[in-house]
Design a protein that fits this description.
With 69 residues, the protein is of the alpha+beta class. It has one helix spanning 57-68, and strands at 15-16, 29-34, 39-44, 53-56. InterPro entries: DUF397.
């Protein structure tokens, strides 16, 4: 596992909330599909300029699959 401390530039329009989230909801995660890099970004919708977790697309798919079960 590697850690990066510098900012990664992800265009703001790349981030989205689940369609299950309410428009006014503030307790949401936002996801960015970083397909070119084979990764997915995850951040807190309340702290858009805060840190983001970046995981492999494979790990994200496994997480979502586990949550759906």
């Amino acid at each position: 596992m590697s850690y990066r401390t510098g900012p990664e530039v992800v265009p703001e329009q790349s981030w989205f909330k689940s369609s299950y989230s309410q428009e006014i909801g503030t307790n949401c995660l936002e996801i960015a599909d970083l397909a070119g890099a084979g990764h997915v970004g995850v951040r807190d919708s309340k702290h858009k300029t805060g840190p983001a977790l970046v995981v492999s697309a494979t790990a994200w798919a496994a997480f979502v699959g586990g949550v759906r079960q």
